[in-house]
Design a protein that fits this description.
The complex is a heterodimer of chains A (310) and B (300). With 310 residues, chain A is mostly helical. Chain A has a domain at 96-309: MetI-like fold (Orthogonal Bundle), CATH 1.10.3720.10. Chain A is built from 14 helices and no strands. The longest helix of chain A has 36 residues, at 274-309. Chain B has 300 residues and is mainly α. The longest helix of chain B has 38 residues, at 2-39. Chain B has a domain at 78-253: MetI-like (MetI-like fold, Orthogonal Bundle), CATH 1.10.3720. Chain B has a two-stranded antiparallel sheet. Classes of the chains: A mainly alpha (310), B mainly alpha (300). Chains A and B meet through helix 1, helix 2, helix 4, helix 5 and helix 6 of A and helix 1, helix 4, helix 5, helix 6 and helix 7 of B. Chain B: It is a multi-pass membrane protein.
């Protein structure tokens, strides 16, 4: 956390220095303490209002998940009863856990996400190395084919892949949820672009010392590419964790459901049982929230890295 | 001799590195793309044999009033994009001042993005509940205070209000997410001497924003806008599936939802493939426009 806070602060400080220093020389004499204070106050008020807006629905969800089932949500009561938990019906959570196999959904999700992410990062890095560093016949043509598919919407490939999987008899398997998510042109492209920015000297030296291609890839290129690998890991992880449509299409039995599909299934069973539904939602959000709060520095850096390429 | 041997060795190594990804790429991307194009000229319900019908699917599609309706829905729902982008920029500008707790605010603003998915859509289904949802209780409370009985709309079950409801949720979800972080990074990259120069010329904050900040961050705006539009055309399945089922009366069905329905509910594989190719065409045209515009519109 402090590491990500540092650049933000320094740049904000230097900018302040800039705006303050010439002010003495130029005509902004009135730009003194009181107005600065007022401005600061407005900015904080605005930011806090924004934060409350973002957090309010989550808080409301938590409150709702702890209410008496049935006796919920009446605005005849004091208004804050909808916002502050006044009852703590933890049984909502145990009931939700009993209603559908949530633990199973969790495990399915974790298994799918880990396999997809590992597969994606490893195969993309290998292909990116070939594209960025090795010369071979057909390289540019193959790379162009990768690039060309990047703007094709997932909806185009979805239908033939579904047909293929059903012909193979892979419908309702983990393979069907994992494999199509591994091989994306985006991952290969992003890592190739990153590899190209790295200096080649080390690799040349290692080559002269008789290092194999794999050795160069594994011991030189990968360690230098940690930020890019982290970015790809995060994006694949999040995409896979939230992926709803594809598993919905290829899986139809409860014990194979990943969490999002499981939760939707839960909703279809208990459509108006709001306390239970909210308890289920809280349980889905909690793990990813914890991962994010601890790893948010990597998320932010990853997003910045992905946006630079344009 | 040795040279040749080295090149051969390099080629073998290259294909070895490429093999896993390339195999998967061929099986799950490039061959399916071609297959999908072929499918779009066929009728196939997966039970009987596929039948070649030429461009019938496309003709039927252009005469399909539902397709046009859902195209309109998709575009309507993209109203969330300009609002959320402006919001992201305003938040980023506020965070870029010399304030404390940047990481704290950024973390909170990012929560809707990080938690996005089925759970959030279920939560918002409740938020829009006509009787006890957040909006309608607040509207009723407000009515009590001013002494006029006010009643909020039925939101998700009202054909008029379902789309605005999804737009409001979309803004809430996107405003503090990726775009804000990209803007924040862009703002921090604006060279300081430009502000210095503007100040020497006596520019106030408003003028500095339009003369320095806005042109400097325009590549980011351009990137965000095009990515959002491309994403917007493919969006709308998850929230609609969870919150409205595409209703009421198709009011929240988007192009991608229509493809899903044809392919996986009604098993019209050929027709669904045809729609997906029209979608691809739209995205392709936007991408082309993006490349064309890139040199003219964006100031560096």
């Amino acid at each position: 956390m402090p590491a990500s806070a540092a650049p933000v602060k320094t740049s904000a400080m230097t900018e302040k220095k800039v705006s303050a220093a010439p002010a003495i020389k130029s005509k902004n004499h009135y730009d003194k303490k009181p107005s600065q204070w007022g401005r600061k106050l407005c900015i904080y008020a605005f930011l806090i209002l924004g934060a409350l807006t973002m957090i309010a629905p989550f808080f409301w969800m938590l409150t709702a998940s702890l209410k008496e089932p049935g006796a919920v949500f009446s605005y005849q009561k004091a208004w804050w009863h909808d916002w502050v938990p006044t009852t703590f019906v933890w049984q909502n959570y145990t009931k939700a856990l009993e209603a559908v196999p949530f633990a199973r959904f969790y495990l399915n999700s974790i298994f799918i996400v880990v396999c997809t992410t590992a597969g994606q990062v490893i195969t993309s890095a290998m292909a990116a190395y070939a594209f960025a560093r090795l010369r071979f016949a057909g390289r540019d043509k193959i790379f162009f084919a990768y690039l060309a598919t990047m703007m094709i919407p997932g909806a185009v490939t979805m239908i033939p892949v579904f047909i293929l999987l059903s012909k193979l008899g892979w419908i309702n398997t983990y393979k069907a949820m994992i494999l199509p998510g591994i091989f994306t042109a985006y991952g290969t492209f992003m890592l190739r672009q990153f590899f190209l920015t790295l200096p080649k000297d080390l690799e040349d030296a290692a080559m002269i010392d008789g290092c194999s291609y794999f050795g160069i890839f594994w011991r030189i290129l990968l360690p230098l590419s940690k930020p890019a690998l982290a970015t790809l890991t995060i994006f694949t992880f999040m995409g896979s964790w939230m992926n709803f449509m594809w598993p919905l299409i290829v899986v139809n039995s409860e014990e194979k459901f990943p969490l999002p599909v499981g939760l939707a299934y839960f909703q279809s069973l208990y459509r108006t049982d709001w306390t239970l539904l909210m308890a289920g939602s809280v349980m889905m959000i909690l793990p990813i929230l914890i991962v994010f709060i601890f790893g948010q520095r990597y998320f932010v850096e990853g997003i910045k890295l992905s946006g630079i390429k344009g | 001799m040795g040279q040749l041997k080295n090149t051969t060795k390099e080629t073998i190594a290259a294909y070895a590195f490429l093999a896993p990804n390339l195999t998967g790429f061929l099986i799950f991307t490039s061959i399916p793309v071609l297959a999908s194009l072929g499918l779009s000229f066929m009728r196939w319900d997966l039970l009987t044999a596929p039948r070649f019908v030429g461009i019938d699917n496309f003709i039927q599609l252009f005469r399909d009033p539902l397709f046009w309706k859902y195209c309109w829905n998709t575009i309507y729902l993209m109203l969330a994009i300009p609002f959320s982008i402006s919001g992201s920029l305003i938040l980023a500008l506020a965070l870029n001042q010399k304030i404390k707790g940047v990481v704290f605010f950024r973390t909170i603003y990012f929560l809707p993005t990080i938690c996005s998915g089925v759970a959030i859509f279920m939560l918002w289904r409740l938020v829009y509940n006509p009787e006890f949802g957040i909006f309608n209780t607040m509207i009723a409370k407000f009515g009590e205070i001013i002494g006029v009985p006010l009643k909020g709309p039925f939101w998700l079950s009202d054909e008029k209000w379902a789309k605005p409801a999804l737009i409001i949720m979309g803004i809430w979800q996107m405003v503090g997410g990726y775009n804000m972080i990209l803007y924040l990074a862009a703002l921090q990259g604006v060279p300081r001497h430009l502000y210095e120069a503007a100040e020497i010329d006596g520019a106030n904050s408003w003028q500095k924003f339009w003369a320095v900040t806005w042109p400097q961050i325009s590549p980011t705006t351009f990137f965000i806008a095009t990515m959002s539009i491309i994403g917007g055309f493919q969006a709308g399945f998850d929230p609609a599936y969870i919150m409205t089922g595409g209703g009421p009366n198709g009011a929240t069905t988007t192009i991608i939802y229509y493809i899903y329905n044809h392919a996986f509910e009604w098993y019209h594989m050929g027709y669904a493939a045809a729609i997906s190719w029209v979608l691809f065409l739209i995205i392709f045209l936007i991408t082309l426009a993006k490349w064309k515009l890139f040199s003219n519109e964006v100031t560096y």
